Amino acid sequence: MYPHFALTLQRTLYHTFDAPGDALVLDGGRTLSSHTVAYQTWGQLDETRSNAILIFHALSGDSHVSGQHEDGRSGWWNMMVGPGCAFDTDRYFIICANVLGGCKGSTGPSSHNPETGRPYGTDFPVVTIDDMVRAQRPLLRLLGIEKLHAVNGASMGGMLALAFTQLYPEMTERAIIMASAAANHAQAIAWNKIGRRAIMNDPHWLGGHYYDSPDGPPRRGLAVARMIGHVTYISEGAMDRKFGRSLQAADKESFSFGVDYAVESYLAYQGKSFHERFDANSYLYITRAIDYFDFAAKTKGDLTAAFAQTRARYRFFSYDADWLYSPERNEAMAQAALAGGREAVHHRVHAPLGHDAFLVQKEPQTELISEFLQK
Fold this sequence. Notes:
This protein folds into 2 domains: 264 residues, Rossmann fold, CATH 3.40.50; 100 residues, Rna Polymerase Sigma Factor, Chain: A (Orthogonal Bundle). 33% of the residues lie in helices and 14% in strands. It contains 11 helices and 12 strands. The strands form 3 sheets. Strands 1-4-8-5-9-10-11-12 form an 8-stranded mixed sheet, sandwiched between helices. Strand 11, helix 9 and strand 12 form a beta-alpha-beta unit.
């Protein structure tokens, strides 16, 4: 048994892949001679090493998917990963790694650049979803895993899971794609662009080289980017039900440009809390990778042909109030997978919250996922 597995599950583990054969050739043409992957594991790998499930996180997530971290944080998906949960840690060996380009331990723009001795900043190469997946392949080899029981991801994580089934078709039997898309659509690209522009227009961004600045990072720009993004994660109906036109504090409008409405206060809080835990440059890099993703690009836009190149059985989950990655887009993927000869089922879940429902709604996906993993 590998020594990593005896460690407590609350710790983040790190491994730097810097052997001659570990150089990572990126889609943009540049090469990383070494890269670090931050990851966590739950459960035990069985004797045949066939019970491993790789979970990919969404844009602002990290490797801490479940449990209590040593720094006090709770996992971002406790309701789905743990003993007796959909991803049952008594049955499966769960792995989750921070993506390349992130800011929670894996190599990204805030990492040390060996050529300069300073953080990369925007000298870090632009990366793609495929690059992020390739960066995690050596981790599986390190853990002694040559075939996964399943891959899973939601939102951006769903794109990563799709990319995995395409890049390594022989390595997984099942793929669970939640609240995701085969490619980012024009409106989503537009929202991401506005968020990036908010960061880059912050005078503290300094072209991405702000890490040693006495003024600190571009907090205001990142806060605005998060506010913009957060609006896309929640449905119009959920916003109305939660806030409506409720005033935050006074009994009438202030006739100023401050905070009048409860929803304004809520977004301001979301922006502030986000810039305290996330790196602005990572937001630029990750949203750009999402924009570049196109599952059918290698088959000249033919989505059916793209799925025909894979071997996995698919389960797609969409949420009926999700206007970012709609049920129709998920249904199109399921139909293309079926036409490409793959087993595929699309579950349309009633979830008034919208896109973020995958984070907070336990049913019915718990039962559906458990059944699929045990099938």
